[in-house]
Amino acid sequence: MSSLLSVKLVRDSRANWSRFLLMAIAIAASLTVCGAVLYAWSTVGREARAAYLGTEPASATLQFQDAVDTQSMQAIVAGARQRPGVLAATGRTQFDSQVEINGESRDVPVQVFAATPNDPLDVARFDIERGSWPPAPGDIFMSRDTLTLLNASVGDVVRLQRPGGEPMDLRIAGTVYDPSLAPSSQEQRGHAYLSTAALGVGTTQPLLDQLKVQFAAPGTQTPSSDRGEISADAVALSEWLTGSYRFQVREIQVPPPEAHPHQFQADVLLLSLLGGGAAALLLSTFLVANMLNTLFTQQIPQIGIMKAIGARSGRVARMYLIMTLVVALAATMVAIVPGIWGGRLLASQILSMLGIEPTSLAPDWWTYLIVIGVGLLLPLLMTLMPLLKASRITVRAAIDHHGGSAKPSAATSALGRLSRGGGVDRTVLLALRNMVRRPARFLLAVGLLAGAGIVFVTGISLGDGMAAVAEEQRDLRVWDVEVQLADPTAMSGVREALEALPHVTKVEGLRVANVGLTAAGQVPITRTYPDQGHGRVSITAVPTDSSMFTRPHLKAGRWLKEQEPGAIVLSQIARDDNIPATQVGDNVQLSIDGNATTWRVVGIVEDRSGGTYATAAGLAAALDRPEHVNLLRIATSSHDEGTRTSVAAEVDQVLTAAGIAVKSSTSVSRANTSSEGHMGPLVAILLAIAIAMGAVGGIGLASTMSANILDRTREFGVMHAIGAQPKAVRRVVVMEGVFIGVASCVVAVLPALGLTAVLGAGLGNLFMDAPLPYRISLPAVVIWLVLAVLGSALATNAAATRASRITVREALAYL
Description:
alpha+beta; 4 domains; six-stranded mixed β-barrel; six-stranded mixed beta barrel; 21 strands; about 55% helix
């Protein structure tokens, strides 16, 4: 009997090769997507961690209130290295500057990192790709992506502004690879490295204002990964510095340990795509289960014959189990190579987003085991129940099987009563009755198509929501040029100098300052990364008559009152990242320029920039200084990029000539580009999920509709025998497929709306502690509706044509 079953297995495979091919394609397509993401996840995690930790990042950075000279810093570093738990320490400084390349100005600022010539670079190190440390006093190094951003080359002369504002000309002598920083193209800011000797100051002049320290985990000689322990060690070191050297530490910066500035963004991207890949795989497995269930149902008469001549249920089950395993094995083998290729491509793109050059794009060995195991076991598990049910059917039940249900469903009975009433086309009624006469199969087919539609619409809608964030930020920037001043300045003098310029229509000034935010009475500990941007908390003094400032959405409490002193409004990001237990009415402490000030929280807003807000009078009173400004927003008569760039250059020249030091003067397009650089990869990933799910849904659409027709061959023969015309049979079958497609769209409406809201809130809160703007992509809805209806008609067309051509003799001989 085993040999006969083997013969039947081979013949069934030949007879149904197209169906098996479609099953293998469905599994292979989704397994390729899921495997590619898994491979990329393992590669990105390994390479990002190795590259970032390879820079020996500082566990904490202690910002001094006042800079110290090189000799004093050497003594501080030597003392810090002797402290318990300190693995390494070094003194550094950094500053931002506008830049000129070979005499031509660039509207991209550059962040300059300076270290002493004898710095061993054992903490916060960077790799010199071309050249050696220290560079000559007249030389500077830049990262390669900075050279691309500035359109510069090694050997060019770059003009920078010293921290005091004086210009200096340096030669670009080499390139640096620093994977601890976000790419320059995303931040729209260059990165440069030089020796303190290049700044033209002596060793006894104050210059260094950062102490970078690497703390060990308790009882080990490896860097600590516990932010709480690092913060406690940093506070103890700060107290020691104050007691031993009388140095005031104004802020302690402790970024998330062992994590790149964009690591969280990359993890969310990969988790989102992995979820989409897993959904695609589950969807395709449901598809295969449906197709195999149809095949088992179709072969019930044959199973009855096999049992009548002696076959046992176990052998029949093994035969169909082998059939399923062969399909799963073929699909898995097909998916391995394109999955690896896709994983390498995806990992390369995400590592590029992180600014990391991988040493290897090969995935970890365990990912292969997971992909092979899932590819083989998941289809078997999904088809196990229908397989066992079909193999255990009795000979009597197999002979009585006629492709329908002995007891009509409630929906079928209702449609039958409707047909007796007249007034409805009988073709439509027949199609509807055929569609619902097997509720389980109908629900599976509709659920399959609806699942694809839900993910398709949700994916593209989330992409629209992400795009809306960038668009929302662009809309809030109603100014054209943004100017950062080196020092706070009286607004009256600035306005007089700028309003006479052509194309300048309005000038507004604000005071913005970086702050340390803590509960009252505590040392300010921030999450600021070495770039002084990621994790930074700032306070904005809002002028009362501003037309270029839009109030954020209020979540709790109230907004600031005019000229209100001592009151502050927190963004939910600043609150959650630093003092999560704080509520409206609580007091908080802000460290501003080293001064500890106490404020009362009057409101909490939903603000994706993560800032805090006070009145101009309130900030001036807290600092005991005049209401000066250090940030200018300028509106121009024309909003094109050419006008913005020329006005930015003219403003820089006019203010400099007036004795006002300019830190940067740039077009607002730079900020827009930076936002798009952060959001763009996530939008692309979400669209990739939508496309993958749409493709699998299309395969499911075609296969499900075809499978629904195959096991009703005898029914079509009966229809022909009682006089039905071929075109009538064809119309009934096509209409049935269209109805299922439409039903799937109706079923998908509410889940798509809900899933978009849930995922939008989840992704938004993960990225910016605020839900994404709720968007439902109408083009996606229309596209899927058209695909579902037309796809149903097209997928059913071939089977309908075959059904319309079946003769009565062929139908009666069909098993």
